[in-house]
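Q: I'm writing up a methods section and want to include an example of the input and output format. Could you take the sequence below and give the corresponding predicted structure tokens, formatted cleanly so I can copy it straight into the document?
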Amino acid sequence: MNFAKTELGDNTFEDLVDSIEQLEYSRDRSYGFVIESLKPEQISAHLIITTPVKIQDYNEESREIINKQVDKTELIPFQIDLKRNFLEVFSNQSDTSEVKTRLGEAMGWKISITESPLNLAKLYDALKETDYETNITSLQIKNFSVDDNTTGSYRMNVFEESEGIEYLSEYQNNVSYLCVELSDEIETATVGFYRSGSIRIYSNIETDAHLLEKIKVALNSSEGVTKNA
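A: Here is the clean output for your methods example:
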């Protein structure tokens, strides 16, 4: 999952819905949107893209290997939450860029969608303010200093919370990955946060709606997603 800050400027939620509906998927265009559900200030939809792909096949009549072209259709699920001002793409970074481009096209480029690095130290502080108990389980640090002569990227498991917090504080923007165990009275989830803005939920929890809402609150309140200067 990837998050990006989203602002409509002078446009309304209804303008956004209308624009997405007008760029509805069709095979002739080979791309477009299909809205899955609408809630107050929230859209769940898919960007659908069809591309021709060359494959090899076997012709039984001629007993030859032949080249032919078939259509490959990709569905990219996403959600726009204007209450929290986030675009959430449930896929990879490349698909996020594709969704951003097509939404910009649909809105006549009157929508601002900004991907910025996460400040993982600030984000962790904000997560601690939610109703979840937090526990750092692993970190990846760039430019990690082993000694005076050796530095590099280092992925570590964290067994002492105080040690993880110390590394977050010391290395700040050099922390490229933070894995946190979040637990409440009902369930426990393990979530990985990447500096790039990607978030991965590793646990098979019953529902992640509450969890995602708390993550978005933490991102906003901590300025975990920062706007470009």
